[in-house]
Amino acid sequence: MTKFRTLDDIGDVAGKRVLVREDLNVPMQDGRVTDDTRLRATLPTVTELADRGAIVLLLAHFGRPKAPSPEYSLALLTAPYEAVLGRPVSYVDWEVADENVAMLRPGDVAILENTRFFGGEEKNDPAVVERFARLGDLYVNDAFSAAHRAHASTEGLAHRLPAFAGRAMEAELKALEKALGAPERPVAAVVGGAKVSTKLEVLRHLVAKVDHLIIGGGMANTFLAARGVDVGKSLCEHDLTGIALEILDAAEAARCTVHLPYDVVVAKEFAPDPPSLRTCNVHEVARDEMILDVGPAAVEALADVLKTCRTLVWNGPLGAFETPPFDRATVQLARTAAALTEAGQLVSVAGGGDTVAALNHAGVADGFTFVSTAGGAFLEWMEGKELPGVKALES
Questions:
Q1: Domain containing residue 91
Q2: Is residue 177 part of a domain?
Q3: How many CA atoms within 13 Å lie on the side-chain side of 208?
Q4: What's the CATH number where 232 sits?
Q5: What SS3 class is residue 141?
Q6: Which residues are part of the catalytic machinery?
Q7: What are phi and psi for residue 370, nearest 5 degrees?
Q8: Across the 395 residues of the chain, what is the mean pLDDT of every consecutive 10-residue run?
Q9: Last residue in a domain, options 170, 201, 228
Q10: Last-in-domain residue among 104, 136, 170
Q11: For residues 357 and 27, what is the distance between their CA atoms, to the nearest angstrom?
Q12: H or E stretch including 327?
């Protein structure tokens, strides 16, 4: 595994100003945080540094502001974060940042204003890097979810100050190494979602890395169509069937077994428990029907595949899980994976927004070895891409 300096290597931080890049980009409604998962993920790093006497300065972006505006101010998060952290949290505006930071004492925690209020943040402008750097003595990146971006606060600072991975970043990198870096074999990957086009590079990368590739969701229809199956009026990218065949050929050459559903749940309309609901063989889909989930026989067979594996990477649901009963395949296979994980038979790593929602829906997110809340960064990692924010932390 690539070596990263962590908080174990940071030395004495008492009285030192530590710039900590966190992901505080949480959903809010009417001034309230509706999901504090990302806030809670920061606690191990922030608490440890504060307890060790550091002056903790949190760097984060919030939303996609075109210019500084109150609705994107991190001042909105100071009180919610204070409630989660359980200790006082200051807010620091960039206009008076130097003076405010100078007044902080060892063990204090402060949130600096939105990094994206600087036009050069996303361009990794050296002047913005310098503006951030002069506030700190050390830099800690704890935001894997932003590591695919080479921004001033995610990449530039790591070259300007002594740089370390925070506890959340460290846990993420260790989990990903176990999943695809140096995994125990056999390895299975579940890749679901609506469209092949959004995950072409993921699929191309995985067929050379895993032993079993389980394809679900709308993208499975494109692969079925490529194999000559009439998928009726199912969501399907017919213009990508040629590429689907190339991926299947690459999988065969790499001795990766691709699993597509052979029985499916179909309906004539996409609605909860529609009257036209039925389960059939993939070759029996009528022209006015759409495939909305993987069938029970296929799910049972996929569960048997997971029982032979030692490692699982999961990204995307198997069906239209937001609408019952098209959540059944995802829920059943996720519960199998969680049970195998809890029995010590499987290392299971999952990531991506829809995936996290699906695992929470199945009630098994805590049963997986590691669940990443990162979206784009997790996907780019699955594509085999180098993440700038991670690369900059290599020791």
A1: 7-170
A2: no
A3: 10
A4: 3.40.50.1260
A5: strand
A6: 38, 195, 353, 376
A7: -155, 135
A8: 87 98 93 91 98 98 94 96 97 97 98 96 97 98 96 98 97 92 95 91 95 96 97 97 97 98 97 97 98 98 98 96 96 98 97 88 95 88 92 88
A9: 170
A10: 170
A11: 14
A12: none
